[in-house]
Design brief:
Layout (H helix, E strand, L loop, with lengths): L1 H15 L4 H29 L5 H5 L1 H20 L7 H7 L2 H13 L4 H6 L3 H12 L5 H14 L5 H4 L6 H16 L2 H14 L4 H29 L1 H27 L9 H19 L2 H12 L5 H30 L2 H20 L12 H6 L9 H6 L1
Helix pairs in contact: 1-2, 1-5, 1-6, 2-16, 2-17, 4-5, 4-13, 11-16, 11-17, 12-13, 13-14, 13-15, 14-15, 14-18, 16-17
């Protein structure tokens, strides 16, 4: 987290003083390094620090911070768009240093996780940290689980090879499928290109920026719903409900835009229909914000055994940003060719991923990380990959 924070600081500083495109690219690359380190470390940190019964809600603090950041960015962009002199964009990109400082200072003062301390042989320090964060002296059972998991993980010298073994097949599939599906919902089409999209369907320049702010606000509010319900109703319920809601709203948006922007359409929307499209997009954003948004980070962060945890989370982050990059590069071209059909395409992906959850994603609510192998062993499909001795070791 500290390394990522330093990269963020350098990137925001270089972007703010950029004199040419090359400096902007270098600054963005450094911001990308910071994002990569933060997305690797923060979800794992939260999952390892949280008690099992609160792990979902606490881990979703990561997604809540992300949604707040998106909302604040929208507000900053809306405000700096009116700055005279043509330097509003410098204010916008340089202000990334503010949350970066919070993250960097936090990384300095936060304690290491008990799992990390055990892994490095610092058992006394691990027990003290565990007692502090659990608020009780009685942590011997949980500490012993960590010690046994650590001892088992030390038998694995090459985690990148280990994650390819048969008993880790469920983990590898989830590490690839969940972050890929998270991006294939089309959420970044909305969040990256919301002003362009809203301007296309009839909103003016300032109105399109404000519409992006509205969708960002919905994103924040809906994430609070997920935090409040994830440890009560479980992961699968939120996955399924969010998938159905996204599917319906995307099909509806595609139908409206296809009717008015198709070959026989008028090419414009009335104010009422434009507002309806905005409402449907907000419904879609809300569904993502309490399902695939936070759960796309939560579930992978809690399913990996210690011996492949870092490798697994690295795959999750890599796959997530690979698909983010691909969708960002292809969206405008796809919009030109598919037009309203683009929403149908993403709706098809949502249908596939919802079925994937129904049949292949197990419920992990309330299960200690060190006992997660039992979840796979009880699953109708994945149980054939988990040997009995592996369950006992976990």
């Amino acid at each position: 987290m500290l390394f990522g924070g330093v990269a963020f600081l350098l990137g925001s500083a270089i972007n703010g003083i950029s004199m040419n495109v090359a400096m902007l690219i270098i600054g963005r690359l450094l911001l990308g390094v910071g994002v990569g380190f933060a997305n690797q470390a923060v979800p794992l940190y939260l999952s390892e620090m949280a008690p099992a019964q609160l792990r979902g809600a606490l881990n979703m603090g990561f997604q809540m911070a992300t949604t707040i950041g998106i909302l604040v960015a929208g507000l900053v962009n809306y405000g700096t768009a009116t700055v005279k002199g043509g330097y509003g964009w410098r204010i916008s990109v340089a202000l990334a240093a503010v949350p970066t400082l919070i993250m960097t200072v936090g990384a300095i003062v936060l304690p290491d996780t008990p799992n990390s301390l055990v892994e490095r042989g610092l058992r006394v320090e691990a027990k003290a940290t565990l007692q502090k964060i659990r608020g009780t002296e009685d942590v011997d059972v949980e500490l012993q689980d960590m010690i046994e998991a650590s001892e088992a993980s030390k038998q694995v010298r090459h985690p990148w090879q280990s994650i390819l073994r048969r008993e880790h097949r469920p983990h590898l599939i989830m590490a690839i499928a969940i972050p890929a599906f998270q991006q294939l919902t089309g959420i970044n089409v909305i969040m990256f290109y919301a002003p362009v999209l809203f301007k296309t369907i009839g909103f003016g320049n300032s109105a399109s920026l404000m519409s992006a702010v509205i969708s960002g606000l919905v994103n924040v509010l809906a994430t609070t719903v997920s935090i409040a319900t994830v440890d009560k109703f479980g992961r699968r319920v939120l996955f399924f409900e969010g998938g159905v809601q996204m599917l319906v709203s995307q099909v509806a948006v595609g139908a409206i835009l296809g009717t008015f922007f198709g070959s026989a359409g008028t090419g414009k929307l009335s104010p009422a229909l434009a507002n309806l499209v905005l409402t449907l997009i907000c419904i879609y954003v809300a569904a993502f914000a309490w399902s695939w948004g936070p759960l796309g980070w939560l579930v992978p962060s809690e399913i990996f055994p210690m011996d492949i945890r870092s490798a697994g989370q690295a795959i999750v982050v890599g796959v997530n940003f690979f698909f983010t990059f691909i969708i960002a590069q292809l969206f405008l071209m796809a919009l030109c060719h598919l037009k309203a059909g683009l929403f149908y395409l993403f709706a098809a992906f949502v249908l596939v991923m919802t079925l994937f959850v129904v049949f292949l994603v197990p419920e992990t609510k309330g299960v200690p990380i060190e006992e997660m192998a039992l979840v796979w062993k009880k699953h109708w499909f994945w149980k054939k990959y988990i040997p009995e001795d592996h369950v006992r070791t976990a």
